[in-house]
Amino acid sequence: MNLPVISRPLEPALFARTPGLERHRVAPGGLTVVALEQGDRLELIDLEGDQAAELLAFADDGRVALAALGLAVSPGAEFIAHLLHDGSREAAHITAALLRRGIDYRQLPPAARLWQQGTPAGFRRSFSASAALLVIVAAPGGMTPVDQQLRASELRLLIHRANPHQVLAPPLPAPLGELVDEFTISPGSARDYVVAAGQYIQVLDVAGRQCSDFVAFDRRGLDAGREIDLDPTVTRTLNGSAYPGPGLFSKFFDRNLQPMLEVVRDTVGRHDTFALACTARYYEAQGYFGHANCSDNISHALAKHGVHGRPGWPAINFFFNTGVDAHQHLTLDEPWSRPGDYVLLRAITDLVCASSSCPDDIDPANGWQPTDIHIRVYSDKERFSIAMANRPTPDADPVLTRESGFHPGTSTLTRHLVDYRGWWTPTQFDGYGTLAEYHACRERVAVMDLSALRKFEVLGPDAEALLNYCLTRDVRKLAVGQVVYSAMCYEHGGMLDDGTLLRLGADAFRWIGGEDFGGEWLRQQAEKLGMKVWIKSASEQIHNIAVQGPLSRQLLRQMIWTPGTQPPLEELGWFRFLTGRLDDYNGCPLMVSRTGYTGELGYEIWCHPSDAMQIWQRLWQLGEPLGLAPLGLHALDMLRIEAGLIFAGYEFSDQTDPFEAGIGFCVPLKSKQDDFIGRQALLRRKEHPMHRLVGLELEGNEPATHGDCVHLGRAQVGVITSATRSPALGKNIALCRLDVAYCEPGTRVEIGKLDSQQKRIAAIVTAGTVAYDPDKSRVRA
């Protein structure tokens, strides 16, 4: 007899599946405060390894109660006390809360040190609370110079509740600022509220995967008897996107094309502006008569404000996961939102609003289990950073969009910033523009903030062996002071990432790539092999700026000082790096690598974020006489396509091997004798290739775009991965993943536009992927 098949999807960090488990993050060099009940179990995990941990616990009467967790004071463990006296806003908030509980932060004893140095990645300890406690956990650490490698890393804190049946919802996160009002909306209901211009609205998903319809009216219009409401169609049209998000195109508009609200933060990134709020007719059509619905609930909530009810409201449905498939059908699935996710809006005018907690329990719209929505209204005196959110792994805490150490400099020159891999990065600069930035790099010198690159320190006696196994390059041949470009592949040969590896010492390396998961992947392989090695995240403490162009050496030699043990800037070879200081012996520490992403002579400067603006200002002081210009992502894209340089998600993915991506040169299958991840698959793929990356020159002046299909007659034989108008060549060019049968230079193909049949652009396969300076004489100069 066959048992029924049970649905068991992997759903990390979803409260409804593990209601007795709470997750918290302890930031590197920071602390986290949690409350425990008697019988709760506290579990601490050293995610990256070799990270110290301190803990203080207090009873209800304010006395130190480490014994309630089976711990004792460790002499010298005073990092928590140090942080609470550092004068920061965060410290002031915590100390005020401690004082309210009768805890005098000015007389704190040493904390308990939870483990000794040298812990492996994933090391954990558990403690059971014998009484109700307030617990402070810290991850000691501080600023680490760019030329050093041992860095603080985060801890994960898990609370296993002794009485999970009493926990109906996860605890609400702390307010973001000064509250004007807050309330919870239970499933199947809606609530009206009034918001003044300048105030902020936070729509918060308490337990995750819960939709909330939102409508807003101009309050002055209602007072005059006019219903001027938020209009999704106008909003989509004026923003040019399915829904606004934090950044340049962030406004919600009314039907008169006037802005009503600005999106300040969004930790989810998937909402709906197409469908109506759920209606009585929708449920009736499914056979559920009299079912509660958001449209009727919103109408009832707004009636007191004189708003006429509607059978269906064209609301903004926050967290609703809708899409349009290839057949033009609207689709829905469970929301992306996790417990505590939110959207933060700023009112541009006085508003009357209504929000619902959707009662839909007959499809996946609310994860099959409708839960609460919480609304908070904040004072107009608050100032919140503009941000989206990124999760390095599905079960990780969200990380808001960050500003690099160079942001104060770049942001004064442009408002055109995008969230690029979790960092605000300029796309183009006011007063310059993409073409001017491009020509500055080709003809003079340009600077670009590339701090969004991920950096990982790889340390320990097995560091070389691990990297040699995880990268395609032969790491054993890499000398101290040298840089090598490499691919990182999965077992099936598909690419996880590409990046550069720096060797800082015999057992010390720095991997620089685009993927946060690259560090986690290295840790997984090290654990599997039982290696003694630590992989420490360094992205927050190493920021970098690219200095590119034929005059880059002339600029940098005026400001980079090196000791006698290092080569002077003028003698730094291609794919080499040096450690030095800004201007002289007493300047801030920095590193310079002769690397870049433009196809020009170029360098990258690596520094601690606190030193970034010193370097930025010095670059401009010395660079303006040379015609220095800033460089944005749009100009960089033109430069790298001309140079045949590949980009994640375009030229490669986990379905593309390095040969298909055009970087087969970094897979030395013959000369590298050691095994590495993906070797067998890459041997097979190289012997039986299906596609190659080629360059195309297009006829005429109409451009191709990423994703365009490439045809020979009616059959599709390839796809455009990247394309641009080349200013240097005066023609449109493209990179194309093409069937190997048609890669001979001179082969004529057609690029499909519209439906790929009604319009075609003729193109010819070129001799290589590098359209500009194919012999690399400029970059090697």
Fold and architecture overview:
Helix 8 packs across helix 13. The chain is built from 14 helices and 42 strands. It is globular and about 70 Å long. By secondary structure, the chain is an alpha+beta fold. Strands 9, 11, 13, 14, 18, 20, 21 and 22 form an eight-stranded mixed sheet that branches. Strand 41 and strand 42 form a beta hairpin.
**How large a portion of the residues is in β-strands, by DSSP E?**
25-35%
Note the main sheet. 8 strands, mixed
Shape category: globular
CA-atom Rg in angstroms: 28 Å
Tally the helices: what do you get?
Answer: 14
Number of strands: 42
Helix and strand content put the structural class at: alpha+beta
Mean pLDDT, to the nearest integer, reads 95
Measured distance between first and last alpha carbons = 74 Å
Low-confidence stretches: none
Helix content: 10-25%
